[in-house]
Amino acid sequence: MRSVAIVFLLAVQPLFGQNLDRVKTDVAALTDSAMHGRGYVHGGTEKAAEYVADRFHEIGLQPVGDSYFQPFSFAVNVYEAPLLLKAGKRELVPGRDFIADPSTGISRGKFAVQWFDSSHFKGADPPALRKKRIPAVVMEGITDPETVSKFHTFKIAALDRGPVIQVVPEKLTWSVGQRRHKHAALEVRSEVFPRNTKKIKLDVAPEMREVEAANVIGMLPGRRSDSCLVITAHYDHLGRMGEALFPGASDNASGTATLLDLAAHFAESPPPFDLYFIAFAAEEAGLLGSRFFTEHPAVDMNEIRFLLNLDLMGSAATGITAVNGRAQKAEMARMAAINSEFDYVPKIRLRGNAPNSDHYFFAEAGVQAVFIYTEGHITAYHDVDDLADGLDWTNYEGLFMLLRTFIETF
Protein backbone atom coordinates (compact mmCIF):
# COMPACT_ATOMS: atom_id res chain seq x y z
CA MET A 1 0.00 0.00 0.00
CA ARG A 2 2.89 2.39 0.72
CA SER A 3 4.17 2.24 -2.87
CA VAL A 4 0.70 3.03 -4.22
CA ALA A 5 0.48 6.06 -1.94
CA ILE A 6 3.89 7.27 -3.12
CA VAL A 7 2.94 6.97 -6.78
CA PHE A 8 -0.32 8.87 -6.14
CA LEU A 9 1.55 11.62 -4.31
CA LEU A 10 4.05 11.93 -7.12
CA ALA A 11 1.34 11.98 -9.76
CA VAL A 12 -0.35 15.04 -8.30
CA GLN A 13 2.80 17.04 -7.54
CA PRO A 14 3.79 19.87 -9.88
CA LEU A 15 7.44 20.82 -10.29
CA PHE A 16 7.64 23.63 -7.75
CA GLY A 17 9.39 24.54 -4.57
CA GLN A 18 12.96 24.96 -5.73
CA ASN A 19 14.39 28.45 -6.27
CA LEU A 20 17.60 28.24 -8.25
CA ASP A 21 18.04 32.02 -8.30
CA ARG A 22 17.98 32.05 -4.51
CA VAL A 23 20.41 29.11 -4.43
CA LYS A 24 22.84 30.99 -6.67
CA THR A 25 22.51 34.08 -4.47
CA ASP A 26 23.41 32.03 -1.38
CA VAL A 27 26.40 30.46 -3.14
CA ALA A 28 27.59 33.89 -4.30
CA ALA A 29 27.37 35.22 -0.73
CA LEU A 30 29.14 32.22 0.81
CA THR A 31 31.97 32.37 -1.74
CA ASP A 32 32.43 36.14 -1.64
CA SER A 33 35.96 37.23 -0.72
CA ALA A 34 34.52 38.85 2.41
CA MET A 35 33.91 35.32 3.75
CA HIS A 36 37.64 34.58 3.38
CA GLY A 37 36.94 31.03 2.20
CA ARG A 38 34.86 30.26 5.32
CA GLY A 39 38.02 29.24 7.11
CA TYR A 40 40.07 30.20 10.15
CA VAL A 41 41.57 33.58 9.32
CA HIS A 42 39.92 37.01 9.26
CA GLY A 43 36.80 35.58 10.94
CA GLY A 44 35.74 33.61 7.89
CA THR A 45 33.99 30.73 9.62
CA GLU A 46 32.21 33.08 12.05
CA LYS A 47 30.90 35.25 9.20
CA ALA A 48 29.63 32.18 7.35
CA ALA A 49 27.90 30.84 10.47
CA GLU A 50 26.17 34.18 11.00
CA TYR A 51 25.03 34.20 7.38
CA VAL A 52 23.52 30.72 7.67
CA ALA A 53 21.82 31.60 10.98
CA ASP A 54 20.36 34.76 9.44
CA ARG A 55 18.99 32.70 6.56
CA PHE A 56 17.50 30.18 9.01
CA HIS A 57 15.73 33.06 10.77
CA GLU A 58 14.56 34.56 7.48
CA ILE A 59 13.14 31.21 6.34
CA GLY A 60 11.41 30.66 9.67
CA LEU A 61 13.38 27.82 11.24
CA GLN A 62 13.19 27.57 15.00
CA PRO A 63 16.42 27.51 17.02
CA VAL A 64 17.11 24.46 19.14
CA GLY A 65 17.64 25.90 22.61
CA ASP A 66 18.59 29.55 23.12
CA SER A 67 20.16 30.13 19.70
CA TYR A 68 20.92 28.51 16.36
CA PHE A 69 24.55 27.93 17.40
CA GLN A 70 26.26 24.89 18.92
CA PRO A 71 29.79 26.19 19.68
CA PHE A 72 32.96 24.15 20.05
CA SER A 73 36.70 24.76 19.71
CA PHE A 74 39.70 22.99 18.21
CA ALA A 75 43.30 23.58 17.15
CA VAL A 76 44.16 24.22 13.52
CA ASN A 77 47.23 25.21 11.51
CA VAL A 78 46.39 28.59 9.92
CA TYR A 79 48.10 30.65 7.23
CA GLU A 80 47.36 34.32 7.86
CA ALA A 81 50.73 35.75 6.81
CA PRO A 82 51.62 35.87 3.09
CA LEU A 83 53.67 32.96 1.75
CA LEU A 84 56.77 33.46 -0.38
CA LEU A 85 58.51 30.95 -2.64
CA LYS A 86 61.09 32.12 -5.16
CA ALA A 87 62.62 29.60 -7.55
CA GLY A 88 65.78 31.31 -8.72
CA LYS A 89 64.58 34.78 -9.68
CA ARG A 90 60.97 33.76 -10.28
CA GLU A 91 58.43 34.42 -7.54
CA LEU A 92 55.72 31.75 -7.58
CA VAL A 93 52.02 32.38 -6.94
CA PRO A 94 50.54 30.79 -3.80
CA GLY A 95 47.56 28.58 -4.55
CA ARG A 96 48.28 28.43 -8.29
CA ASP A 97 51.97 27.56 -8.49
CA PHE A 98 52.42 26.01 -5.06
CA ILE A 99 50.61 25.06 -1.87
CA ALA A 100 51.77 24.36 1.66
CA ASP A 101 51.25 20.97 3.20
CA PRO A 102 48.34 21.28 5.68
CA SER A 103 50.78 20.43 8.47
CA THR A 104 53.65 22.55 7.27
CA GLY A 105 55.96 24.21 9.76
CA ILE A 106 57.92 27.46 9.63
CA SER A 107 60.78 27.98 7.16
CA ARG A 108 62.41 31.28 6.27
CA GLY A 109 65.55 31.99 4.29
CA LYS A 110 67.56 30.93 1.26
CA PHE A 111 68.20 27.25 0.56
CA ALA A 112 70.25 25.20 -1.90
CA VAL A 113 68.34 22.39 -3.62
CA GLN A 114 69.26 18.73 -4.10
CA TRP A 115 67.08 16.92 -6.65
CA PHE A 116 65.56 13.45 -6.21
CA ASP A 117 63.21 11.34 -8.32
CA SER A 118 61.50 7.95 -8.13
CA SER A 119 64.74 6.08 -8.89
CA HIS A 120 66.16 7.23 -5.54
CA PHE A 121 63.40 5.36 -3.67
CA LYS A 122 63.70 1.98 -5.37
CA GLY A 123 66.90 0.71 -3.77
CA ALA A 124 67.43 -0.97 -0.44
CA ASP A 125 69.10 2.07 1.14
CA PRO A 126 67.38 5.41 1.67
CA PRO A 127 68.69 8.30 -0.45
CA ALA A 128 71.29 10.52 1.20
CA LEU A 129 70.64 14.23 1.63
CA ARG A 130 73.82 16.31 1.48
CA LYS A 131 74.60 18.86 4.16
CA LYS A 132 73.22 22.35 3.66
CA ARG A 133 70.79 21.07 1.03
CA ILE A 134 67.04 20.66 0.99
CA PRO A 135 65.31 18.03 -1.14
CA ALA A 136 63.24 18.78 -4.23
CA VAL A 137 61.53 15.50 -5.05
CA VAL A 138 59.96 14.84 -8.45
CA MET A 139 56.83 12.94 -7.41
CA GLU A 140 56.00 11.47 -10.81
CA GLY A 141 56.50 7.69 -10.58
CA ILE A 142 56.34 7.58 -6.79
CA THR A 143 53.08 5.66 -6.84
CA ASP A 144 53.54 2.05 -5.79
CA PRO A 145 53.37 1.18 -2.07
CA GLU A 146 57.11 0.55 -1.72
CA THR A 147 58.31 3.84 -3.20
CA VAL A 148 55.57 5.80 -1.43
CA SER A 149 56.57 4.30 1.91
CA LYS A 150 60.27 4.99 1.35
CA PHE A 151 59.55 8.55 0.26
CA HIS A 152 57.39 9.15 3.32
CA THR A 153 60.14 7.92 5.65
CA PHE A 154 62.66 10.12 3.82
CA LYS A 155 60.34 13.15 3.98
CA ILE A 156 59.70 12.89 7.72
CA ALA A 157 63.43 12.63 8.43
CA ALA A 158 64.23 15.53 6.08
CA LEU A 159 61.62 17.76 7.72
CA ASP A 160 63.55 17.52 10.97
CA ARG A 161 66.47 19.22 9.18
CA GLY A 162 64.73 21.73 6.95
CA PRO A 163 62.01 22.31 4.34
CA VAL A 164 60.96 19.77 1.69
CA ILE A 165 59.75 20.52 -1.85
CA GLN A 166 57.54 18.03 -3.70
CA VAL A 167 57.36 18.69 -7.44
CA VAL A 168 54.05 17.41 -8.78
CA PRO A 169 52.65 17.06 -12.33
CA GLU A 170 48.98 17.15 -11.33
CA LYS A 171 46.69 19.90 -10.04
CA LEU A 172 47.23 21.27 -6.56
CA THR A 173 44.75 20.13 -3.91
CA TRP A 174 44.90 21.86 -0.54
CA SER A 175 43.48 20.86 2.84
CA VAL A 176 43.38 21.81 6.53
CA GLY A 177 45.74 20.45 9.19
CA GLN A 178 45.59 20.09 12.95
CA ARG A 179 49.28 19.46 13.60
CA ARG A 180 52.54 20.90 12.37
CA HIS A 181 55.92 19.69 11.19
CA LYS A 182 59.12 21.38 12.32
CA HIS A 183 59.78 22.88 8.88
CA ALA A 184 57.85 23.77 5.73
CA ALA A 185 56.62 21.14 3.29
CA LEU A 186 55.45 22.48 -0.07
CA GLU A 187 53.98 21.08 -3.28
CA VAL A 188 55.02 22.89 -6.47
CA ARG A 189 53.75 22.40 -10.01
CA SER A 190 56.48 20.93 -12.19
CA GLU A 191 55.98 23.42 -15.05
CA VAL A 192 56.96 26.36 -12.83
CA PHE A 193 59.80 24.61 -11.00
CA PRO A 194 62.30 23.32 -13.61
CA ARG A 195 64.97 20.73 -12.85
CA ASN A 196 67.72 23.34 -13.24
CA THR A 197 66.47 25.18 -10.15
CA LYS A 198 69.40 25.31 -7.74
CA LYS A 199 68.35 27.81 -5.09
CA ILE A 200 65.09 28.93 -3.53
CA LYS A 201 63.92 31.55 -1.09
CA LEU A 202 61.16 30.78 1.40
CA ASP A 203 59.00 32.66 3.86
CA VAL A 204 56.36 30.29 5.19
CA ALA A 205 55.09 30.95 8.72
CA PRO A 206 51.80 29.28 9.69
CA GLU A 207 50.44 29.45 13.22
CA MET A 208 48.80 26.79 15.37
CA ARG A 209 45.68 28.44 16.70
CA GLU A 210 42.78 27.44 18.95
CA VAL A 211 39.68 28.56 17.09
CA GLU A 212 36.01 28.84 17.98
CA ALA A 213 33.42 27.51 15.56
CA ALA A 214 29.75 26.56 15.71
CA ASN A 215 27.33 24.16 14.11
CA VAL A 216 24.16 25.99 13.04
CA ILE A 217 20.93 24.13 13.87
CA GLY A 218 17.33 24.97 12.96
CA MET A 219 14.07 23.04 13.18
CA LEU A 220 10.63 22.89 11.54
CA PRO A 221 7.75 21.15 13.33
CA GLY A 222 6.25 18.30 11.35
CA ARG A 223 2.86 16.72 11.25
CA ARG A 224 4.25 14.18 13.74
CA SER A 225 6.83 14.66 16.48
CA ASP A 226 7.42 11.09 17.66
CA SER A 227 10.56 11.00 15.48
CA CYS A 228 12.44 13.31 13.14
CA LEU A 229 14.30 13.64 9.86
CA VAL A 230 17.60 15.49 9.54
CA ILE A 231 19.16 17.31 6.57
CA THR A 232 22.81 18.34 6.90
CA ALA A 233 25.56 20.09 4.97
CA HIS A 234 28.86 21.64 6.01
CA TYR A 235 29.23 25.38 5.48
CA ASP A 236 32.98 25.66 6.18
CA HIS A 237 35.78 25.47 3.64
CA LEU A 238 39.57 25.85 3.60
CA GLY A 239 39.82 29.60 4.04
CA ARG A 240 42.98 31.37 2.95
CA MET A 241 46.57 30.25 2.53
CA GLY A 242 48.17 33.63 2.94
CA GLU A 243 46.77 35.71 0.09
CA ALA A 244 45.44 32.68 -1.81
CA LEU A 245 41.65 32.36 -1.46
CA PHE A 246 39.86 29.01 -1.60
CA PRO A 247 36.19 29.96 -2.23
CA GLY A 248 34.67 26.47 -1.94
CA ALA A 249 31.67 26.89 -4.26
CA SER A 250 31.18 23.21 -5.03
CA ASP A 251 32.58 22.13 -1.67
CA ASN A 252 30.35 23.04 -0.01
CA ALA A 253 28.54 26.30 -0.60
CA SER A 254 26.46 24.29 -3.06
CA GLY A 255 25.31 21.84 -0.39
CA THR A 256 24.59 24.61 2.12
CA ALA A 257 22.53 26.51 -0.46
CA THR A 258 20.60 23.34 -1.35
CA LEU A 259 19.89 22.74 2.34
CA LEU A 260 18.54 26.31 2.59
CA ASP A 261 16.41 25.77 -0.52
CA LEU A 262 14.86 22.64 1.00
CA ALA A 263 14.30 24.48 4.28
CA ALA A 264 12.44 27.27 2.47
CA HIS A 265 10.17 24.74 0.77
CA PHE A 266 9.33 22.82 3.93
CA ALA A 267 8.73 26.05 5.85
CA GLU A 268 5.77 26.55 3.48
CA SER A 269 4.76 22.87 3.34
CA PRO A 270 4.92 21.07 6.71
CA PRO A 271 7.07 17.91 6.60
CA PRO A 272 5.75 14.50 7.70
CA PHE A 273 7.96 14.52 10.82
CA ASP A 274 9.88 17.17 12.72
CA LEU A 275 12.64 18.26 10.36
CA TYR A 276 16.06 19.46 11.55
CA PHE A 277 18.55 21.33 9.39
CA ILE A 278 22.17 21.28 10.56
CA ALA A 279 24.95 23.26 8.89
CA PHE A 280 28.18 21.82 10.25
CA ALA A 281 31.44 23.65 10.91
CA ALA A 282 34.94 22.17 10.61
CA GLU A 283 34.15 19.35 8.20
CA GLU A 284 37.33 20.17 6.30
CA ALA A 285 39.38 19.91 9.49
CA GLY A 286 38.32 16.28 9.94
CA LEU A 287 34.53 16.07 10.36
CA LEU A 288 34.94 17.86 13.68
CA GLY A 289 31.55 19.57 13.77
CA SER A 290 29.53 16.45 13.09
CA ARG A 291 31.63 14.42 15.50
CA PHE A 292 31.05 17.04 18.19
CA PHE A 293 27.31 16.93 17.51
CA THR A 294 27.12 13.15 17.84
CA GLU A 295 29.05 13.38 21.12
CA HIS A 296 26.86 16.28 22.35
CA PRO A 297 23.57 15.75 20.49
CA ALA A 298 21.09 18.61 20.38
CA VAL A 299 18.57 16.09 18.99
CA ASP A 300 17.78 12.68 20.46
CA MET A 301 19.81 10.41 18.20
CA ASN A 302 17.38 7.55 18.82
CA GLU A 303 14.56 9.60 17.31
CA ILE A 304 16.28 10.23 13.96
CA ARG A 305 14.47 8.19 11.31
CA PHE A 306 16.88 9.20 8.56
CA LEU A 307 19.70 11.66 7.92
CA LEU A 308 20.42 13.09 4.47
CA ASN A 309 23.82 14.80 4.14
CA LEU A 310 24.38 17.09 1.14
CA ASP A 311 27.87 17.84 -0.18
CA LEU A 312 29.01 18.80 -3.72
CA MET A 313 25.61 19.66 -5.19
CA GLY A 314 26.62 21.86 -8.14
CA SER A 315 26.13 19.59 -11.18
CA ALA A 316 24.06 16.41 -11.47
CA ALA A 317 24.71 16.06 -15.19
CA THR A 318 25.39 12.33 -14.93
CA GLY A 319 23.53 11.62 -11.69
CA ILE A 320 24.19 11.33 -7.98
CA THR A 321 26.00 8.99 -5.62
CA ALA A 322 24.76 7.91 -2.18
CA VAL A 323 27.65 7.07 0.15
CA ASN A 324 26.50 4.47 2.70
CA GLY A 325 23.60 3.80 0.36
CA ARG A 326 24.37 0.09 0.20
CA ALA A 327 23.59 -0.16 3.92
CA GLN A 328 20.22 1.59 3.49
CA LYS A 329 18.61 -0.82 1.05
CA ALA A 330 14.94 -0.10 1.79
CA GLU A 331 15.20 3.69 1.66
CA MET A 332 17.51 3.69 -1.34
CA ALA A 333 15.09 1.37 -3.15
CA ARG A 334 12.37 3.93 -2.44
CA MET A 335 14.53 6.74 -3.77
CA ALA A 336 15.27 4.67 -6.87
CA ALA A 337 11.54 4.04 -7.40
CA ILE A 338 10.81 7.77 -7.17
CA ASN A 339 13.57 8.53 -9.64
CA SER A 340 12.50 5.75 -12.01
CA GLU A 341 8.96 7.12 -12.11
CA PHE A 342 9.98 10.66 -13.07
CA ASP A 343 13.61 10.55 -14.32
CA TYR A 344 14.67 13.33 -11.96
CA VAL A 345 18.40 12.51 -12.32
CA PRO A 346 20.14 10.25 -14.87
CA LYS A 347 21.46 7.73 -12.33
CA ILE A 348 21.69 6.92 -8.63
CA ARG A 349 24.88 5.10 -7.73
CA LEU A 350 25.28 3.44 -4.33
CA ARG A 351 28.53 3.18 -2.39
CA GLY A 352 29.56 1.69 0.89
CA ASN A 353 30.28 3.86 3.90
CA ALA A 354 33.36 6.08 4.11
CA PRO A 355 34.55 8.84 6.48
CA ASN A 356 34.37 11.44 3.72
CA SER A 357 31.58 13.74 4.94
CA ASP A 358 29.36 14.56 7.89
CA HIS A 359 27.05 11.55 7.67
CA TYR A 360 29.85 9.30 8.92
CA PHE A 361 29.71 9.65 12.71
CA PHE A 362 25.92 9.40 12.63
CA ALA A 363 26.14 6.13 10.71
CA GLU A 364 28.77 4.89 13.15
CA ALA A 365 26.34 5.71 15.98
CA GLY A 366 23.62 3.59 14.37
CA VAL A 367 21.63 6.33 12.63
CA GLN A 368 20.31 5.57 9.14
CA ALA A 369 22.31 8.11 7.13
CA VAL A 370 23.52 8.68 3.58
CA PHE A 371 25.76 11.28 1.99
CA ILE A 372 24.53 12.48 -1.40
CA TYR A 373 26.87 14.13 -3.90
CA THR A 374 26.31 15.00 -7.54
CA GLU A 375 28.31 13.80 -10.51
CA GLY A 376 28.76 16.07 -13.47
CA HIS A 377 31.01 18.63 -15.09
CA ILE A 378 32.81 20.14 -12.11
CA THR A 379 36.56 19.49 -11.89
CA ALA A 380 37.59 22.13 -9.34
CA TYR A 381 38.12 20.65 -5.89
CA HIS A 382 40.02 22.04 -2.90
CA ASP A 383 41.66 24.62 -5.13
CA VAL A 384 41.49 28.31 -5.93
CA ASP A 385 39.30 27.62 -8.97
CA ASP A 386 36.29 26.28 -7.04
CA LEU A 387 34.27 29.39 -7.95
CA ALA A 388 30.56 30.13 -8.01
CA ASP A 389 30.51 30.55 -11.79
CA GLY A 390 32.05 27.09 -12.14
CA LEU A 391 28.78 25.45 -11.04
CA ASP A 392 26.41 24.70 -13.91
CA TRP A 393 23.54 23.37 -11.75
CA THR A 394 22.64 20.78 -14.40
CA ASN A 395 19.53 18.81 -13.32
CA TYR A 396 19.17 20.89 -10.16
CA GLU A 397 15.37 21.04 -10.50
CA GLY A 398 15.18 17.26 -10.75
CA LEU A 399 17.65 16.80 -7.90
CA PHE A 400 15.60 19.10 -5.69
CA MET A 401 12.39 17.25 -6.53
CA LEU A 402 14.01 13.89 -5.85
CA LEU A 403 15.25 14.98 -2.42
CA ARG A 404 12.02 16.79 -1.60
CA THR A 405 9.81 13.85 -2.55
CA PHE A 406 12.07 11.39 -0.75
CA ILE A 407 11.59 13.42 2.44
CA GLU A 408 7.86 13.92 1.92
CA THR A 409 7.17 10.22 1.47
CA PHE A 410 8.53 9.02 4.80
Q: What topology emerges from the helices and strands here?
A:
Blueprint: H1 2-11, H2 20-30, H3 44-59, E1 62-63, E2 69-78, E3 84-87, E4 90-91, E5 98-100, E6 107-116, E7 134-138, H4 145-159, E8 164-168, E9 185-189, E10 199-204, E11 207-220, E12 224-234, E13 239-241, E14 244-246, H5 249-268, E15 273-280, H6 288-295, E16 304-310, E17 319-323, H7 329-342, E18 348-350, H8 360-364, E19 369-375, H9 396-408
Parallel strand pairs: 6-7, 7-8, 8-9, 12-15, 12-16, 16-19, 17-18
Antiparallel strand pairs: 1-11, 2-11, 3-4, 3-10, 5-9, 6-10, 11-15, 13-14, 17-19
Report on the architecture of this protein.
The N terminus is likely disordered. The chain has 410 residues and is of the alpha/beta class.
Q: Per DSSP, what share of the residues sits in E-state strands of 2 or more residues?
A: 25-35%
Flag low-confidence runs. Answer: 1-15
Number of helices: 9
Cα(first) to Cα(last) distance is: 13 Å
Under CATH, the topology of the largest domain can be stated as Aminopeptidase
Number of strands: 19
Radius of gyration: 23 Å
Shape call = elongated
Please name the CATH architecture of the largest domain: 3-Layer(aba) Sandwich
| SSE ordering | HHHEEEEEEEHEEEEEEEHEHEEHEHEH
For the residues shown, what is the average pLDDT? 95
Largest sheet: number of strands, sense, barrel closure: 9 strands, mixed
Structural class: alpha/beta
CATH class of the largest domain: Alpha Beta
- Binned, the helix content reads 25-40%
Number of domains: 2
CATH superfamily of the largest domain: Zn peptidases
